[in-house]
Amino acid sequence: MQQRVQTKFTEALDYLNDGLTKPRRMKKYDKVLEKVGSLKSDYASIAKYYTVDVKKEIDFDEEEIEDTYDKLQELKQKVEQQLGINNEINQDELKYEVLLEKVTLMTEEAPEDIAALLEALLSEENQNMIGNMMGNNKWV
């Protein structure tokens, strides 16, 4: 008997939980809390062994998000105008800035690897320079 009550209680909680991601099912925080309370009272003999946590997620209003985005874009344009930034973007300068940022990030993440690479390049360059100097001088 106790096993059957436990199964029904957990199935009801699972159904409620699954409904949070499905259309036309209960999702409002206060309604979910009310349903959990109802389940706890209906299955009181087994519910006392369970802890049910209901976490409220932030509900976003799509119109509100779009309005905020539009306002942000307007403010950005206004600031750009005040600072004298024009809409013309130098592609080469932008590529250089992105490349510089990536190299800086790589240097911060793995400084030992970068140092070893530079040492190897310098050593190779020194060997090439010595080889060129020896080749240009004719020893009699």
The amount of helix comes to over 70%
Q: Can you summarize the main beta sheet?
A: none
- Note the total helix count: 6
Shape estimate? elongated
- Based on helices, strands and strand pairing, what is the structural class? mainly alpha
Mean pLDDT: 83
| Low-confidence runs | none
The overall number of domains is 3
Order of helices and strands: HHHHHH
SS strand fraction: under 5%
Radius of gyration, taken over Cα atoms and rounded to an integer in Å: 33 Å
Rounded to the nearest angstrom, the distance between the terminal CA atoms is 108 Å
Counted beta strands: 0
Molecular structure report:
The protein has 140 residues and is mostly helical. It folds into three domains: 2-47; 62-88; 90-140. Helices cover 74% and strands 0% of the residues. The protein is elongated and about 95 Å long. The termini are far apart.
